[in-house]
Amino acid sequence: MADFATGGVHQQPKGWDALRKHVLQYKIDVALWATRIATLVFTIGYFIPLFWNPYNAYYKALMANAATSALRLHQRLHPVSLTREFLMRLLTEDSCHYLFFCIIFLYVPPVTLVLLPVSLFALLHSASYSLQLLDTLGQNSWWGARLAISLVEFQSRNILRLISFSEIFLMPFTVVLILMGRAGLLTPFMYYQFLLMRYRSRRNPYTRNMFLELRALLENLANHPSAPGFVRNLIMTIVAFTCRLAPEVPAQ
């Protein structure tokens, strides 16, 4: 009985010691997890301004996400080389896309919708890595956190679809921001370049698939027998215009 009690006492320190070793061994991965958690914390601070000014929390969330993107680029593309091939690889990375996204909106007054894709990506990736950290503490540790993580992972496909929809919806919204005097004339053009990169993404086809889903939905609405002629023509004009703007996707 005494040996059993002694083993139980020493079980938890071993878990925390394993966590410490994991942090020391995977510094960049842990730093990515920390910046993603910071993105979530500042996003919550923007919507529930208990500890920060919401204006400051908004830009801190974007800067935390920019730090995540920069760390991820360092992890995937290290070392840096000033060559055309390196630049082409850089532009295909999803982290580069969202670093560009943050730069675009750091110079625009706070827009709530901008934080949606940023915070949802942070939630997805921080949840998966949080599970790794919990595993170093032991299989039975923090069961409440494990339950919350499992719910996030169960909804991962829907979350990615929501992210892609928000990316697309932000394109016409940037034009509305100009009309409202809240964005410069270059903002839609810069965001269009971001959307092109997301459309061509090799690792994340959700934006491209969402475009196809929206096109099918709009064409079904236009071809509905009860749809007025002017509505049908307007929808088909929008679809045709959008298709002309879509880039060719290179073979995977």
TrEMBL record:
This is Krueppel homolog 2. One of its GO terms (biological process) is endoplasmic reticulum tubular network organization. Pfam families: TMEM33_Pom33. The lineage of its organism: Eukaryota, Metazoa, Ecdysozoa, Arthropoda, Hexapoda. Keywords: Membrane, Transmembrane, Transmembrane helix. One of its GO terms (cellular component) is endoplasmic reticulum. It comes from Thrips palmi. Belongs to the PER33/POM33 family. The chain crosses the membrane at residues 30-52, 96-124, 168-192. It is found in: Membrane. It is a multi-pass membrane protein. InterPro entries: PER33/POM33_regulator, TMEM33/Pom33.
